[in-house]
Design a protein that fits this description.
mainly alpha; 106 residues; 4% strand; globular; two-stranded antiparallel ribbon
Amino acid sequence: MATTAQRIEDLTLFHLPVETAAFAEAPDPWLAKAREQHPWLATSTIGPVLTSYRAIDEIMRMDDALAMPGAEIAEIMGAKGTGWGTSRRRCCWCATGLTTSACGQA
């Protein structure tokens, strides 16, 4: 029987106020509250936040399912088609598949 992953939009997650001075000064109480609601995931004004080192480690090993949003960042910043925007799209961190083998070669 195949299982489907839950969509983040369907979860009720704690909102971390990452943009506030209170969070910057003492993030641990906020992270503890977030983990009461979900063991490793919360929301913020800048997007989802992983609140567990173990979850981060496991997700970072999923190379086939992850991609850095270089082109998307350039578009959001209004830099599509510029030198900087092109460099974001082509950078090694944003590379996928076989193209990553060339990243270590200069």
